[in-house]
Amino acid sequence: MTQTRGFSRRAIIMHWLITISIFFLFISSWWMLSLPFPSEDFKYRVLPFQVHKNIGITILFFLAILLYLRFKFPPGTVVISHAHPWMSRLVIFYHFLLYVIILSCCVSGYMSSSYSGWNTTLWWIIELPNWGYEDEELNIFYSEIHLWTCWALLVLVAIHVSGAIYHAFRNDGIVQRMLRL
Ligand code: HEM
Ligand code: HEM
After folding, report:
1. CA 132 to CA 106: how far, in whole Å?
2. Which of 55, 60, 78, 86 has the fewest CB atoms within 10 Å, i.e. the most exposed one?
3. Helices (DSSP H) in 34-84: which residue ranges?
């Protein structure tokens, strides 16, 4: 690979904050959904759901910052000698898709929860517009979209991480672009 300027330090920090947050949401969400529904006796779901929503919405900010930084301080284009030009185009499209799917997960989660009848207070400080009202059908509709976009994200992340492992074994400097601070 021809060595070029990598991602900016702040972009790398954002990438890892997004990664940790998404892994946390995936691992915690199935546990969260197995908790009993809120009732007079059981309130267990309330806190984990609030934490999930807060982290999910925060990912949106991280994503916006990452996008801003990667265009303000664009990393150099990677030139791998054996790679075909269409491969670079595929990687660009793939990263674009990753951004779109993360965004869709966040928006569908927010839409679903805004029709659930439960308010969302961002980190217990900022009251978010609860533009919906309690509507079971719309809640289920957006919840389905949330579920499917999350599955799509899981597949994309699996491919992304496999790609990173492949490049780590080849020791071609790609992974270092996201590790060097
Ligand atoms: C990248 C960001 C996110 C990821 C990876 C993620 C992941 C998940 C997963 C895997 C589930 C369990 C499967 C399901 O039933 O859908 C779930 C459920 C849920 N998520 Fe998220 N989520 C994200 C963002 C958000 C946001 C921003 C909100 C709301 C502000 C949210 C609200 C919910 C709610 C209310 C549920 C419960 C079930 C439902 O109504 O769909 N999520 N999330
Ligand atoms: C939830 C998990 C992850 C998500 C959502 C994610 C997301 C992203 C995104 C959106 C980009 C595109 C940056 C851009 O060009 O604008 C990127 C690049 C990158 N990611 Fe991840 N990532 C994740 C996990 C990982 C892991 C575990 C590694 C392992 C080392 C990794 C290594 C990289 C590398 C090396 C690049 C730069 C590729 C290049 O040079 O163009 N990522 N990631």
Report:
1. 16
2. 86
3. 46-72
pLDDT at 118: 80
Q: Which residues are CB-contacts of 4 (< 8 A; sequence separation ≥ 6)?
A: 75, 76, 77, 78, 79
CA of 18 to the centre of ligand 1 (A): 15
Ligand nearest to the CA of 61: 1
Could you give the residue ranges of the DSSP H alpha helices within the chain?
9-33, 46-72, 85-114, 136-170
Record the pTM: 0.91
Q: Whose CA is nearest to atom 23 of ligand 1?
A: 56
Q: What is the mean pLDDT of each run of 10 residues along the chain (181 residues)?
A: 73 97 94 75 77 95 96 80 79 95 96 85 84 85 96 98 93 85 61
Which residues does ligand 2 sit against, CB inside 6 Å? 15, 18-19, 22-23, 70, 78, 95, 98-99, 157, 160-161, 164, 174-175, 177-178
The reply to whether CATH 1.10.760.10 applies to domain 9-178 is no
| Nearest-atom index, ligand 2, CA of 153 | 5
Copy the structure tokens of residue 136. 């079971």
